[in-house]
Every structure is written in structure tokens, then in C-alpha cells.
Amino acid sequence: MKLGCDPVNDRVPVEEGDGGKERRPKTGTNLRSIGLFGGGVKSPPTHPRGMENARKLERRVASCRRCSFVDQPFVLHRVYSWLPPRVRVLAIGESPPPGRKVGSLYHLESFDRLRLSLSLLLGVRMEEVLETLRRSSVFFTAAVKCRPPDRRSLEGMRRNCVPLLRGELELLRPERVVAMGRFASASVGEILGLEPPEDLRGILRVEREGREIFFTPHPNYLFRFGRGLIGEVGRILRD
Q: What are 165-187's pLDDT values in tens digits?
């Protein structure tokens, strides 16, 4: 099974609105200057049991060239260094904020709306979100790993990112998967052979391959429109 992305042979197909041009990445990433291999980005020390997995997952993201992207926050901000020793719950969101932005969940030096929404779900301060997730054996990933140029790019990038998400599921072996929002639900459904719910304003629980699968609204939706579900979704993540 091919989990990485070949920079030469795996160009993304031309889509409507691309002007007939092949989409190539706008930037690349040097693993030895950024991420787990150095670069001075602050993050917690990875537990020895998680270091090998963290390196594998980061390499797969850093080497992927299927899409045009703005940057690679999963590498720039050492996302996989936050892996707990054992991932009990894998929560899946949408993507880093699209466009020329600097914020993302794991970029602790900038404001991030998802981190704000998760602080409400978890009942902690924003600066405590990542450590709270880690202590609870929860890892929060995304259906799209790289920062999209715009929201119109999300669906194509989501499809291209399915092998990376499948690789996370196979490597981390979580007991529970929580797909949060439309894009995460579509990818989880594709990987596990499930039909995601058409209406994501509620919560759906199913079992597949010996693990619990939850489909829920995205945390930012809950923050704005779904406050009545916050307690239940918070328990799904932490209990």
C-alpha cells in the first residue's frame, strides 16, 4: 500500500478552475532544518515510544507533493511531537486555516480559532488544550495536512490526503476515531467503507473493525451554533 506521495509521478489531476495547468507545490520542506530534525521550534519532548511513529508520519507529510499548498504546518510546528505514548482517541478536523495565514492549532505563538473552540469543548484555557489532549491520550489531526491556498482547494486536497490519514490510522491504531466535520467524515467514510451522515449537526456512533467511530460537527461549528452538544462531544474526546 502506498502511503507516501511521490513528488514526480503523483501530480494531482487538473480540476476545473485551474486554467488547464498542472498544479505543483508552491514550496517544499527540508526535514533537516524544520520539524523533528531541528529548527528550534518549541514543542514537548516526544515520548520514546512515539518517536519512531512521529518520524515516519512527519516524513510522509513532508515528502508529499500531490497538491499546491501555502505551507506545511504539520512539519513546521512539529505536530507529531505531541503524540501521546499511546493514542487512545484519534480526533480528525478539517485543515490548517486556508490562505496566507500563520495560525494553526499547533502554532502556539499565534491565535487559532480551532484551539479556542477546543478549549470550550475540554473546559480548559487555550494554552492548556494541547497538553490536555496529550494527557488524555488524544491526538488531534486533520483530514488535510497542508495549508490550502483557499477553501475551493479543500475537497481536492482532502482526496489527495486520504493515504496520509489511512497511514495514521494504521500506525497509531486508536481505539476510537472522532471525525469532526464534513471533510473529516468524508475521509473516514472512504477509508473504513462507511457512509458518513448527511446531516452533521448531531452525533452518530458506529463500530467498525473493533473500534468506535464517531461522526460529530466540527468544533468551530459547535462553538458558534451547537453549544448544546459541547458536553457530549467533550466526553467523547476525553472519556
A: 999 999 999 999 999 999 999 99
